[in-house]
Each structure stands twice: as C-alpha cells, then as structure tokens.
Amino acid sequence: MQKRIRIGVDVGGTFTDFVLVDEHRDMIFTGKQLTTPTDPSKAICEGVRRISREAAIETSELDGIVHGTTLVTNAVIERLGAKVGLITTRGFRDVLEVGHEMRYDLYDLFLEKPEPLVPRNLRLTVNERVGSSGEVLVELDEAGLKAASDKLVSQGVDAIAVCFINSYINSEHEERASDIVLSHHPDLPVTISTVVAPEIREYERTCTAVANAYVLPLMRRYISSLQDKLIALGLKGPLNVMLSGGGIAALRVAQEAPIQMIESGPAAGAISGAYYGKLTNTEALIAFDMGGTTAKMCLIENSKPEHANTFEAGRVRRFRKGSGIPLKVPVIDLIEIGAGGGSISRLDAMGLLKVGPDSAGSEPGPVCYGLGGENPTVTDADLLLGYLSPDYFLGGEMHLDVGVVSDAIDAKLAGPSGLDTVAVAAGIHAIVNNNMAAATRSHIAEKGRDPRRYTLVATGGAGPVYAYGVAKQLKLKRFICPLGAGVSSALGFLIAAPATDGVSSYVSRIDQIDLDKVLKIYRDMSEVAIRSLVEAGGDVNTITIKRRVEMRYLGQGFEIAVDLPDDLTDVNLPELLKTGFLERYTELFGRSISDVAIETVTWRITASGPTPNIQLNFEGQQIDRGSAEKGERQVYFPETGYIPCKIFNRYGLSAGIRITGPAVIEERESTVVAGPDTTILVDNHLNLIIDIHYPEDKA
Question: Considering only CA atoms, which of 562, 560, 573 is closest in space to residue 518?
Fold first, then answer.
C-alpha cells in the first residue's frame, strides 16, 4: 500500500482534535484547538497549520485530510437547520406527525413528542401512486408537482424533500420530481428519499429525507468554505469524511447526503477503541470516549464495533427510546450520555445537585478557563479535586484558575445547598460517574451481556479522568488508556477503512424468492458502492463486499440480520435463507419456530477497502520527555478523601514500567487518574494497562 501523510480532524463541541500520521517516517503528531463554534473552519485551519509546522512538513505535502464533525447532529438537536418544504403523495401529508401511532411513555399524561422538522403549512401533496410491488397505479401529476414546488419557494424554503409512498421499490416518480423542481429552481437543494434511505418503512424514510434536506444547505456552505480555505493553505490532496457507520467516503457524500455524517465523531471514537482492543489482544471491550460535551459508549467484540441501521436524533428525553426523530442511517451502535468536561452543574428546584446535559462548550467554556464562564462544570470540579494540573492543561498552553473555581462553586452550589466546596466538587464527579455507569449497564443488559467480562478502553480528553470511577461502578477489573487518548477520535479517522453501505428492500416469502432479482439487487448495490470507494481513493482490486439480508416471520414487525455468502449463483437460496434465519433466531432468542412462513425484507451490503496499517510512534512530538516523575499533589478519592498522590509525565514512561496507585499520569491532551487500589503497566505500545484490585479478590 502506498505510504501517505494525512491529517484526521474531529470537530467537537469544546475542542477540535488533530492527528497527523506520516507513514514515510512512521511518526504520529497530535494537537488540540478550542473549537470556534461560529465558524468551525477557523479552528480547523489553525490546527492544520500548527500540526503541519510541528511535523516539519508543508500543507502541500499532505495526501489528504479526513474530517468528522458534530455540525449535523447539533443542527438537528438545536433546530438550526434550513427552512424545509416536503412534497409527498396525496393522503400522506401528516406522516411526520402520525409516526408509529405509539407513545414512548404510556403513563406520561403530558407526553411531549419531537416537533417535526417541517411544519404542516410547508408539507404539500401531489397526485401519484406506486403500488407495493412497484407498479405505477397513478401517474405523477407533473403540473401539480411544479405548482407545489413553486408555492414552497414563494414561502421562502431553503430546501425541498420529496418522499412518495412505496418509492423504495420504484424510484421513477421521485427522480422525475427532482428533475422538475431543479429545472425551475436550479439553485434549490433537493433531497429524494430513495437516495438517502431506499428502504421500506414510510415514517423513517420520510424523516430521513427531511432531515437530510434540513442540514443540506448548512453543510454545503460549510464544506465549500472549508475546502476553499484548505486549498488556500496549500492542500492538494482530497478532503474525505467519516460516515456514521465508521467508513471513510468522498466529500461528495457530505454535499449530497450529509445526514450520513450525523454520528461521524462518535463513530471514530469506537473505531479507535476497536483498534486498541486488537492491539492489546482484548476480545470484549467497552469503548468509552468522553470529550467536552458528551460521553459515548460502544461495545466491541473481537475488534469489531456493533452496528445498527437506525439512529434516533434530537430526543425529547435523552435516554427514552422513541422520543426522537428516527433516521434510516447506518451507524455504529453506541449510547451517548450528556456528560463531558464542559457539562454544567446546578441545583434543581428541590435543591438536588444535577449535572448536564447542557455544556459550556468552548465559548465561554468552564469557569477555570477564564474566558467568561460563570457556571461550574465537570472540568472545574476535576481541577478542584486535584485530577487536573492548573499548570499543565493542554501541555501548559492554558493555565487553569483554581481560585475562581472555588469561588464559583461556593456562590452557585455550596452556599445555597449548605455543603462545603469539596463535597460539591466530589458530588459532581460522583454524579457523572454514576450517570455513565448506569447508562452503560443498561445498554449491556439490553444486549444480554455480562459487564464483568469487559475491559474499558478510555479515550477523549476527559475519558481517562473518569475511566477509573466508571470501571469500578461496573465492577470491571481492568481499563486501558492509550497514549494520545485525548485525540483518539481523530486517530480513528486515519485507521478506518474506506467503506460504504448499500441497501434495497425486496419483500418476499422465501419460498417465492426470485433469485435473478436478488442477484440484480446485489449487483446494482455493489457497482454503486465500488464507484463511491474508488472516488474516495480506494483501489478497486482491494475492495471486499459483505452481504446480509434482514428477515422475519410472516406478520412480524421487526427483522433480524443474517449474513450471506459471497456467491449466491449456485445455491439453493430458499433453503440457505431458512437455515440462516432459524439459526440466528435461536441464537438471539433461545428458540425458533420451524413451521411458520419466513419472508425477506431488506438486502444490504457493506463494501470496504483494506484497513490502513499505522505504526504508533509518537517520538516526533515536540514534547518534554524528561523524568517520568513530576512530584506529588493532593488528590481526592472517594474512599480516602485528599491524599498525597504521585504525578507522572506520560512521555517519560517507557514500556515495561509498573506503577502502584494512586497515581495521576499527565499528557498534553488528557490526564489518567488511577486510585489507590490499582496497579499500572506500560505495555509495548505505551498503553497504560490498569488493573483494579477489589477486596474480594484477596479473600
């Protein structure tokens, strides 16, 4: 494989992270900038300039940049997207509000549903109808379609979404509708559902088309501006993007289907976690990525993150399934908790201490940053408890003010609650640990797993600070903190393989399946996927394609996925499908029913190139690699209160060193905290392997 120099850029709510990998020298360089929320490209360009300078290369020497951002998900959550109009089949105007006709909480008399991204006055209908088998029952009323688009434009929409009933099986009317709208309004962004979600289920498909149109103008402006600025810096290589499913794709995807980037940053964190699982020969991992705004958890089995085909955005209740907007987008299956370094602490109406989910972000940021923040945050509590050094935050680039933190906690929290300052700071830390552990425990239980068999791998700027507490609450015996953990999501962009997904729905009883139709479906999806990967820089000769089908018992409402072999031309397809379905059903539910009809619903592929082979060599970093020991300071642990704790320089620790806790190990982008009941080993890749010793282990 050709050697390259690339930069991974992860734009978070508080910090923008950078990793530069120079494969010619087998060196890695890292960096962090405060995110510039009004114009994220400003922090990106400054960070690219800086990390290139530290690596002693010119921007023109870069072979590419891989980018992920929270811009899409933030636009949906904060309702900052475009004014969108929807054109749909007559009779289906209110699909967005009807939804599943289900309540996500049966007993809440004041249940709040997510507000549709398109208000009713901007949802228009036209005459057309495609049957469930793909036959055209009513021709598209082209005059009515033009009139509807003209009316929406006159009402000031910035984009239009088109979603017709059953178009997933015959996209002719949607494609024609797009042509008509663009012929009269060529500068208007148009999204048709069969481009972003060509599969069964009307509500989810409509939501996905609308959400894509909602963020499309914003992302086109952002990507265009970012690309222009990077070219002005001298970038000649491509700007690629990370998709929510963990694959790398060409920039065109962000300009046409940006909804596929809604979880790009968290996906990269999971990819990074899987990489470190493989590096440390750990089969069962919890990838724990905690940044400035949120924490993410993902289960990793045999170096592979778990995936899902639906994602819920903008939940009215953060942890309540069904309270958000369902999107048909391939994603890495993870949970998000509103807990990050910038999460704001407050007293509720009953005087109880609460943390998050709102964040101080980078502007104004935590109180200790001295940038105007007035509300105590998680980072402020960590500083007061001794976990963070006031003089070595971001490697000493940013000084943290302990005094103003103490004053803010006294004024906002300690005084009104009657608690002392330390008790409040410890309470903030404990609440965050408990929230993350409870959400993770629930996520693992839903999947029928035992949390005790897992090892935690902590990444993100705040992940290594909280890994010890979360691991203890989950009764885990080991957690791992990689070198450069604070920018691991950006590293994840560079170790991810080019990959894309294809989907097509074909509903049929397996005893009536049309093999030729199945082969055509897979052939068409494969051709599109291969073109997309080649566009992203992949080699057609190294692309592999994995096939699977989602099936159910006839009459069921949900499907299970079954893997299929590479070659289906010479198999008894009905028998293959039946055997695979019954085996998978038994694996999931402990039993199966052999005499009930089975039907296929959705056919999927994942096309991917080879995973880049990167050497973890941080020797090129311009960092003080002096003595491993930096002295002592008072650090708070729940079992002991404040105790003297040794402080270590992460860059001075070599492979094979063993440390007995308590210990705080500092590096430029993050800090590792290990309690008195731990032992720490530096492995051959400079990961910290931290074992927790419980009293019962000695019995």
Answer: 573
Average pLDDT of the chain to the nearest whole number: 89
**pLDDT tens, residue by residue, 137-169:** 999 999 999 999 999 999 999 999 999 999 999
CA distance linking residue 389 with residue 401, whole number of Å: 10
Helix, strand or coil, per DSSP, at residue 505: strand
Once rounded to an integer, what is the mean pLDDT over residues 457-484?
Answer: 92
Q: What is the CA radius of gyration of the chain?
A: 26
Strand residues in 496-536 grouped as ranges (E): 499-509
Write the DSSP symbol of residue 116: P
Q: Please choose, from the candidates 30, 11, 3, 6, the residue with its C-alpha nearest in 3D space to the C-alpha of residue 620.
A: 30
Helix (H) or strand (E) holding 545: strand 544-553
Q: Note the pLDDT of residue 214.
A: 96
Per DSSP, the three-state class of 134 is: coil
Q: Give the whole-angstrom CA distance, residue 35 versus residue 482.
A: 23
Question: Is a pLDDT exceeding 80 seen at residue 348?
Answer: yes
pLDDT of residue 698: 64
Which helix H or strand E contains 660, and what residues bound it? strand 658-660
| Chain-centre distance for alpha carbon 128 | 37
The β-bridge partners of 671 are 666
Is the dihedral angle over the CA atoms 675, 681, 686, 689 positive or is it negative?
negative
pTM (two decimals) = 0.86
Q: Which candidate, 521, 429, 527, places its Cα nearest to that of 469?
A: 429
For CA atoms 576, 579, 580, 581, the dihedral sign is: positive
Distance of CA 377 to CAs 64, 340, 397, 413, 462, Å? Answer: 36, 9, 20, 11, 12
pLDDT digits (tens, 9 = 90+) for 592-624: 888 899 999 999 999 988 888 777 766 655 565
